Amino acid sequence: MIEVKITDDMKKKALFKSREMGTINNSITVGDGNISGFLGECVANTLIGGDNKNTYDYDIVKDGITYDVKTKRCTSPPKSFYECSVAAFNTKQRCDRYVFVRIENVKGQWGRAWVLGWMEKPEYFNRATLLKKGDVDKSNNFTVKADCYNLKIKDLNQFKEVKK
Known about the structure:
- By secondary structure, the chain is α+β, with helices and mostly antiparallel strands.
- It has a domain at 2-84 and 94-123.
- The chain is built from three helices and eleven strands; from the N terminus they run βααββββββαββββ.
- The chain has a six-stranded mixed sheet with strand order 1-7-6-4-3-2.
- Strand 2 (51-52) and strand 3 (60-62) form a beta hairpin.
- Helix 1 (8-21) packs across helix 2 (34-48).
- The longest helix has 15 residues, at 34-48.
- Mean pLDDT is 88; it is low at 27-31.
């Protein structure tokens, strides 16, 4: 897991993209997560160094490989046993890899960010656990708000270096 500084430029881009997008279909947070999602894309791309595409299927392309960035907000640094999630309604997205990011948000203020790792899409679904809406995730006692596939951070592939 790699900590990445959230810059003012990232915040401006994320806010602009969020306003431009509005509320997306099937949004668990009814659009409230758009800014953190776009921040996650900016943060992930500091390591990937690709082109932002922001399609339904993927967010970043580098050397012909497509990445979809999955971002969660948090209030403290993530631990290796925390879960990464892909919503069950997103399983048809045509991307090659998932990248997982956590964005710190405490009392409405953006703090730190972490790129947790990445995984090839087919491998992710082979290794992840399916949880149904209303299930309690036994690893953290969280009641799942929507069907999703979860995998621990420690099971992800790690990025090796920061792209300049």
